Protein: Tat (Twin-arginine translocation) pathway signal sequence
Amino acid sequence: MVPDPDPPTVGRRALLAGAGAALVAATGVVGAVQPTALPDTLTDQASKYLPEPTDHRWHPPVSEAHARDTVGELAKEVERGRELWAELDTDERFGGAGGWLESAREELRAGNYHEATFYATGGMQFAAEDVGIALARLGRPAADPDRLAERGEAIRDRADDLVADIGDYPVVDAGRDLGWYHDIERWVVIVRLDAHERDPDSDREYDEPDDVGALHAGNRQAELRLATAEHYREQLRDRIGDGGEPTVDRIARLNDRFRDGIEEYPDSVEIRERLEAVREEHGDGPYTLARRKLATWCFDNDHVVTDWKSDLTLVQTVEAAQMLTNRRAHDRALEALVVDPADDGFDSGHVVREKRAAMREFRRVVGNDPAPLLSILTERAGEDIDVAEVGFAGSYERPLWRDRVEAYCYALIGRTKLQAYPRVYERVVE
Structure:
């Protein structure tokens, strides 16, 4: 047969589209036959083409005025830094906000006010750190560690007032309003970590320029985050009005119950001992790796409440609910595990099949428009499914069965978490 003298050209986009369609079709075949029916090289790639969870994590909306104020604060800090560094006798350059200010302004112009606030707050770390260094080198009073500690204390006092203001968590729609309260408290947690506080048990002076830079940056970021939390509070007050029903007592009782449930499970120390016993009995093959991954993800974050979170009842309760759900999910995952002690390899067809099952569970439990609190509770489960692909971010492990086992375990634990969350969510909002 004589070939066509002018064969049609196929563009790169068409080739990629065709390859993608073939892989998607292949994943459909996997759902109908045994996973081992297709070669690993195909199902490795197919794991990347499966549907993934939406970015379902809810965030309170941000007004244009608040975003503009936040971006303006960063712009002022950058300008202050330029002026201070111009006074220094140095060849070093002021780093500005490292591109964050430009990104914040771009998002502001596009009307993406939450993103603009995010970039402005993130950029403050870089600009304010260099401002603090310059203040210290120039010997300015604002660089005095005691003054920085006083400023940090004032910020934390404002945060305490905000926590007191939300008080009894009055709600009209629990699934919605408790999501708002949680994000307010979540920002308070970070504010308390960022704002400088003198440690009476430490002799450290914090008077080196780099120290002053870090302290000043922490205070400035804390101020921006606290202003955002206060902005959320004002919006929530407008939504609830005077008709909200207090829920703090019920939330506190749930916190205690979730903690009691956690206590029924072994702690991370006992889990590590069990894992070592598994390794000694079965070696370092796929089965031991799967057990270790599941246990690490579900038990290595024991629920600990520190003093600076003791008054944040809702944050504590959500953390406890997530910890308890992790432990329940671990039990279910072990029951569903397809890795056997005798295995010396792993078929990535199991990744495809498990990720498909996890996505079905995600659609059933979360859907496309979850209530704010549900989106917060299930955030990590969605992330688990999202990264359940062989060679995630191009990081293939040798031997390849390690990467396949990890991807499978991510999908498995994401699915079993989602199976447990409806019951937890209903208990919180009922």
Residues 1-27 have pLDDT under 50 and may be disordered.
